[in-house]
Design brief:
Elements (H helix, E strand, L loop, with lengths): L2 H22 L4 E3 L2 E6 L15 H10 L7 H14 L5 E5 L5 H10 L8 E5 L24 H10 L5 E5 L14 E6 L4 H11 L3 E9 L8 H10 L5 E5 L5 E5 L1
Parallel strand pairs: 3-4, 3-6, 4-5, 6-7
Antiparallel strand pairs: 1-2, 7-9, 8-9
Helix pairs in contact: 2-4, 3-4, 6-7
The chain binds S-adenosylmethionine.
The site of S-adenosylmethionine (SAM) has 22 residues, from helix 4 and strand 4.
Protein backbone atom coordinates (compact mmCIF):
# COMPACT_ATOMS: atom_id res chain seq x y z
CA UNK A 1 0.00 0.00 0.00
CA UNK A 2 1.42 3.41 -0.90
CA UNK A 3 1.77 6.31 1.53
CA UNK A 4 -1.16 8.21 -0.04
CA UNK A 5 -3.51 5.26 0.46
CA UNK A 6 -2.24 4.84 4.03
CA UNK A 7 -2.99 8.49 4.78
CA UNK A 8 -6.46 8.18 3.17
CA UNK A 9 -7.27 5.15 5.38
CA UNK A 10 -6.13 7.01 8.49
CA UNK A 11 -8.28 10.05 7.50
CA UNK A 12 -11.36 7.85 6.97
CA UNK A 13 -10.87 6.15 10.36
CA UNK A 14 -10.49 9.51 12.09
CA UNK A 15 -13.62 10.98 10.46
CA UNK A 16 -15.56 7.82 11.24
CA UNK A 17 -14.62 7.83 14.88
CA UNK A 18 -15.54 11.54 15.10
CA UNK A 19 -18.91 10.82 13.42
CA UNK A 20 -19.60 7.92 15.81
CA UNK A 21 -18.65 10.07 18.81
CA UNK A 22 -20.98 12.87 17.64
CA UNK A 23 -23.92 10.51 17.15
CA UNK A 24 -23.31 8.81 20.52
CA UNK A 25 -23.12 12.16 22.27
CA UNK A 26 -26.82 12.81 21.65
CA UNK A 27 -28.47 12.53 25.06
CA UNK A 28 -31.05 9.80 25.74
CA UNK A 29 -34.66 10.99 25.46
CA UNK A 30 -38.24 9.90 26.00
CA UNK A 31 -41.62 11.26 24.98
CA UNK A 32 -43.44 13.11 27.81
CA UNK A 33 -46.41 10.73 27.34
CA UNK A 34 -44.23 7.65 27.87
CA UNK A 35 -41.28 8.55 30.12
CA UNK A 36 -40.63 4.87 30.88
CA UNK A 37 -39.75 4.16 27.22
CA UNK A 38 -36.22 5.50 26.84
CA UNK A 39 -34.51 6.13 23.51
CA UNK A 40 -30.85 6.60 22.65
CA UNK A 41 -29.04 6.62 19.30
CA UNK A 42 -28.22 2.93 18.71
CA UNK A 43 -24.95 2.41 16.90
CA UNK A 44 -23.71 -1.16 17.28
CA UNK A 45 -20.03 -1.84 16.61
CA UNK A 46 -20.82 -4.83 14.39
CA UNK A 47 -20.04 -4.54 10.67
CA UNK A 48 -20.82 -7.96 9.12
CA UNK A 49 -23.30 -7.25 6.27
CA UNK A 50 -24.38 -10.53 4.60
CA UNK A 51 -27.06 -8.79 2.48
CA UNK A 52 -24.29 -7.29 0.33
CA UNK A 53 -23.45 -10.66 -1.23
CA UNK A 54 -26.94 -12.15 -1.13
CA UNK A 55 -27.81 -11.89 -4.80
CA UNK A 56 -31.43 -13.04 -4.47
CA UNK A 57 -32.07 -10.48 -1.77
CA UNK A 58 -30.34 -7.68 -3.69
CA UNK A 59 -32.44 -8.44 -6.79
CA UNK A 60 -35.77 -8.24 -4.95
CA UNK A 61 -34.65 -5.32 -2.76
CA UNK A 62 -33.81 -3.28 -5.88
CA UNK A 63 -37.40 -3.79 -7.06
CA UNK A 64 -39.14 -2.98 -3.78
CA UNK A 65 -37.00 -0.31 -2.12
CA UNK A 66 -38.96 2.62 -3.58
CA UNK A 67 -42.17 0.98 -2.29
CA UNK A 68 -41.19 0.68 1.36
CA UNK A 69 -40.59 2.83 4.41
CA UNK A 70 -38.61 -0.02 5.98
CA UNK A 71 -34.79 0.16 5.98
CA UNK A 72 -32.51 -2.49 4.47
CA UNK A 73 -31.61 -3.99 7.87
CA UNK A 74 -35.22 -4.83 8.69
CA UNK A 75 -35.92 -5.85 5.08
CA UNK A 76 -33.03 -8.31 5.19
CA UNK A 77 -34.23 -9.72 8.50
CA UNK A 78 -37.75 -10.17 7.06
CA UNK A 79 -36.20 -11.94 4.07
CA UNK A 80 -34.17 -14.39 6.18
CA UNK A 81 -37.02 -14.99 8.64
CA UNK A 82 -39.52 -15.63 5.83
CA UNK A 83 -37.24 -18.30 4.38
CA UNK A 84 -37.18 -20.05 7.76
CA UNK A 85 -40.84 -19.67 8.71
CA UNK A 86 -42.17 -20.70 5.29
CA UNK A 87 -41.78 -24.28 6.51
CA UNK A 88 -44.34 -23.68 9.28
CA UNK A 89 -47.90 -24.73 8.34
CA UNK A 90 -50.22 -21.85 7.43
CA UNK A 91 -50.27 -18.65 5.41
CA UNK A 92 -48.38 -15.38 5.83
CA UNK A 93 -50.17 -12.19 6.84
CA UNK A 94 -48.98 -8.61 6.66
CA UNK A 95 -51.07 -5.87 8.24
CA UNK A 96 -49.70 -2.47 7.21
CA UNK A 97 -48.83 -2.72 3.53
CA UNK A 98 -48.67 0.91 2.34
CA UNK A 99 -47.15 0.66 -1.18
CA UNK A 100 -46.42 -3.04 -0.97
CA UNK A 101 -42.64 -3.10 -0.45
CA UNK A 102 -42.25 -5.46 2.50
CA UNK A 103 -45.29 -7.45 1.37
CA UNK A 104 -43.62 -8.15 -1.98
CA UNK A 105 -40.37 -9.09 -0.27
CA UNK A 106 -42.21 -11.64 1.89
CA UNK A 107 -44.26 -12.91 -1.07
CA UNK A 108 -41.06 -13.47 -3.06
CA UNK A 109 -39.51 -15.43 -0.18
CA UNK A 110 -42.46 -17.85 -0.03
CA UNK A 111 -43.15 -17.99 -3.77
CA UNK A 112 -43.38 -21.48 -5.28
CA UNK A 113 -43.14 -23.27 -1.92
CA UNK A 114 -46.36 -25.08 -2.62
CA UNK A 115 -49.33 -24.02 -4.66
CA UNK A 116 -51.40 -23.17 -1.58
CA UNK A 117 -49.10 -20.96 0.48
CA UNK A 118 -49.91 -17.29 0.11
CA UNK A 119 -49.60 -13.95 1.81
CA UNK A 120 -52.63 -11.88 2.83
CA UNK A 121 -51.91 -8.16 2.58
CA UNK A 122 -54.22 -6.09 4.77
CA UNK A 123 -54.42 -2.31 4.73
CA UNK A 124 -57.05 0.38 4.87
CA UNK A 125 -55.24 1.99 1.89
CA UNK A 126 -56.46 5.24 3.43
CA UNK A 127 -53.96 5.55 6.27
CA UNK A 128 -53.37 4.70 9.92
CA UNK A 129 -56.40 4.04 12.13
CA UNK A 130 -57.12 3.72 15.88
CA UNK A 131 -54.46 6.18 17.07
CA UNK A 132 -55.23 7.05 20.69
CA UNK A 133 -54.03 7.91 24.17
CA UNK A 134 -51.27 5.26 24.11
CA UNK A 135 -49.62 6.79 21.04
CA UNK A 136 -47.20 9.69 21.07
CA UNK A 137 -46.94 11.02 17.52
CA UNK A 138 -49.52 9.34 15.28
CA UNK A 139 -53.00 10.86 15.26
CA UNK A 140 -54.60 8.86 12.39
CA UNK A 141 -54.63 9.15 8.60
CA UNK A 142 -50.84 8.98 8.08
CA UNK A 143 -49.49 6.93 5.12
CA UNK A 144 -52.64 7.44 3.04
CA UNK A 145 -50.49 8.17 -0.04
CA UNK A 146 -51.01 4.74 -1.60
CA UNK A 147 -53.62 2.67 -3.42
CA UNK A 148 -54.50 -0.91 -4.32
CA UNK A 149 -53.37 -0.16 -7.90
CA UNK A 150 -49.88 0.83 -6.74
CA UNK A 151 -49.54 -2.48 -4.89
CA UNK A 152 -50.97 -4.59 -7.74
CA UNK A 153 -48.62 -2.92 -10.23
CA UNK A 154 -45.60 -3.75 -8.06
CA UNK A 155 -46.63 -7.41 -7.71
CA UNK A 156 -47.31 -7.68 -11.46
CA UNK A 157 -43.92 -6.20 -12.25
CA UNK A 158 -42.23 -8.86 -10.07
CA UNK A 159 -44.50 -11.64 -11.41
CA UNK A 160 -45.89 -12.47 -8.00
CA UNK A 161 -49.38 -13.95 -7.84
CA UNK A 162 -49.32 -15.66 -4.41
CA UNK A 163 -51.14 -12.83 -2.58
CA UNK A 164 -54.60 -11.59 -1.65
CA UNK A 165 -55.31 -7.95 -0.86
CA UNK A 166 -57.68 -7.11 2.00
CA UNK A 167 -58.91 -3.52 1.90
CA UNK A 168 -60.30 -2.11 5.16
CA UNK A 169 -59.60 -2.09 8.87
CA UNK A 170 -58.09 -5.35 10.05
CA UNK A 171 -59.48 -7.44 11.70
CA UNK A 172 -62.98 -5.92 11.94
CA UNK A 173 -63.67 -5.37 8.25
CA UNK A 174 -61.53 -7.93 6.44
CA UNK A 175 -60.40 -10.86 8.61
CA UNK A 176 -63.45 -12.94 7.66
CA UNK A 177 -61.85 -13.58 4.25
CA UNK A 178 -58.86 -15.36 5.80
CA UNK A 179 -58.80 -19.12 5.93
CA UNK A 180 -56.64 -21.53 7.87
CA UNK A 181 -53.70 -21.06 10.22
CA UNK A 182 -51.12 -18.27 10.18
CA UNK A 183 -47.41 -19.17 9.96
CA UNK A 184 -46.03 -15.64 10.04
CA UNK A 185 -47.44 -12.19 10.80
CA UNK A 186 -45.69 -8.96 9.88
CA UNK A 187 -47.41 -6.30 11.97
CA UNK A 188 -46.55 -2.81 10.72
CA UNK A 189 -49.45 -0.61 11.85
CA UNK A 190 -47.64 2.07 13.92
CA UNK A 191 -50.11 2.42 16.83
CA UNK A 192 -51.11 0.57 20.03
CA UNK A 193 -54.77 -0.20 19.54
CA UNK A 194 -54.45 -1.28 15.94
CA UNK A 195 -51.50 -3.58 16.70
CA UNK A 196 -53.40 -5.02 19.70
CA UNK A 197 -56.43 -5.88 17.56
CA UNK A 198 -54.23 -7.50 14.91
CA UNK A 199 -52.30 -9.59 17.45
CA UNK A 200 -55.35 -10.65 19.45
CA UNK A 201 -56.93 -11.92 16.24
CA UNK A 202 -53.73 -13.70 15.18
CA UNK A 203 -52.56 -15.43 18.37
CA UNK A 204 -55.28 -18.14 18.46
CA UNK A 205 -54.67 -18.81 14.74
CA UNK A 206 -50.85 -18.83 14.86
CA UNK A 207 -49.29 -22.24 14.20
CA UNK A 208 -46.92 -23.72 16.75
CA UNK A 209 -43.45 -22.55 15.70
CA UNK A 210 -44.95 -19.53 13.91
CA UNK A 211 -43.77 -15.94 14.40
CA UNK A 212 -45.01 -12.39 14.79
CA UNK A 213 -42.64 -9.60 13.72
CA UNK A 214 -43.36 -6.06 14.92
CA UNK A 215 -41.83 -3.51 12.62
CA UNK A 216 -42.29 -0.55 14.97
CA UNK A 217 -40.97 -1.78 18.34
CA UNK A 218 -37.76 0.23 18.50
CA UNK A 219 -38.83 3.58 17.09
CA UNK A 220 -39.28 7.00 18.59
CA UNK A 221 -42.83 7.96 17.68
CA UNK A 222 -44.17 4.38 17.89
CA UNK A 223 -44.16 4.06 21.70
CA UNK A 224 -47.69 2.62 21.58
CA UNK A 225 -46.35 -0.47 19.80
CA UNK A 226 -43.35 -0.66 22.17
CA UNK A 227 -45.77 -0.65 25.11
CA UNK A 228 -47.98 -3.34 23.58
CA UNK A 229 -45.03 -5.66 22.87
CA UNK A 230 -43.67 -5.12 26.39
CA UNK A 231 -47.05 -6.35 27.66
CA UNK A 232 -47.05 -9.33 25.28
CA UNK A 233 -43.49 -10.40 26.04
CA UNK A 234 -44.69 -11.55 29.48
CA UNK A 235 -46.75 -14.25 27.72
CA UNK A 236 -44.93 -17.53 28.39
CA UNK A 237 -46.32 -19.06 25.20
CA UNK A 238 -43.71 -17.07 23.26
CA UNK A 239 -39.98 -16.65 22.88
CA UNK A 240 -39.26 -12.91 22.68
CA UNK A 241 -36.42 -11.37 20.64
CA UNK A 242 -35.55 -7.68 20.52
CA UNK A 243 -33.38 -6.92 17.51
CA UNK A 244 -31.49 -3.63 17.64
CA UNK A 245 -32.66 -2.82 14.10
CA UNK A 246 -35.99 -1.98 15.78
CA UNK A 247 -37.84 -5.26 15.26
CA UNK A 248 -39.45 -7.26 18.05
CA UNK A 249 -40.14 -10.92 17.31
CA UNK A 250 -42.44 -13.32 19.15
CA UNK A 251 -42.08 -17.01 18.32
CA UNK A 252 -44.83 -19.41 19.44
CA UNK A 253 -43.25 -22.33 21.34
C1 LIG B 1 -45.91 2.29 8.03
S1 LIG B 1 -47.18 1.82 6.94
C2 LIG B 1 -46.68 0.21 6.38
C3 LIG B 1 -45.34 0.21 5.69
C4 LIG B 1 -45.06 -0.97 4.77
N1 LIG B 1 -45.01 -2.24 5.46
C5 LIG B 1 -43.79 -0.72 3.97
O1 LIG B 1 -43.24 -1.68 3.41
O2 LIG B 1 -43.35 0.44 3.88
C6 LIG B 1 -48.51 1.48 8.04
C7 LIG B 1 -49.79 1.08 7.33
O3 LIG B 1 -50.65 0.47 8.26
C8 LIG B 1 -51.98 0.64 7.81
N2 LIG B 1 -52.86 0.30 8.95
C9 LIG B 1 -52.74 0.68 10.24
N3 LIG B 1 -53.66 0.07 11.01
C10 LIG B 1 -54.38 -0.74 10.19
C11 LIG B 1 -55.47 -1.67 10.41
N4 LIG B 1 -55.97 -1.92 11.63
N5 LIG B 1 -55.98 -2.31 9.33
C12 LIG B 1 -55.48 -2.10 8.10
N6 LIG B 1 -54.44 -1.25 7.84
C13 LIG B 1 -53.89 -0.59 8.88
C14 LIG B 1 -51.99 2.08 7.32
O4 LIG B 1 -53.01 2.32 6.40
C15 LIG B 1 -50.58 2.22 6.70
O5 LIG B 1 -50.60 2.03 5.30
Amino acid sequence: MNTNQNQKDIDIKTSLSNAYATIRSQLPWSHPKSPEIMHHRILPHATYSPWLLDENFQNIYALIKEHTLVDIYRCYELWTLAHQFKKVPGNFLEVGVWRGGTGALLAKAIDKIDSDKLIYLADTFSGVVKAGADDTVYSGGEHADTSIDIVNQLFNKINLFNYKLLEGIFPEQTADSLEGKIAFLHCDVDVYSSAKGVVEWTIPRLSTGGAIVFDDYGFSGCEGVTRLVNELRENKEFIFVHNLNGHAILIKK
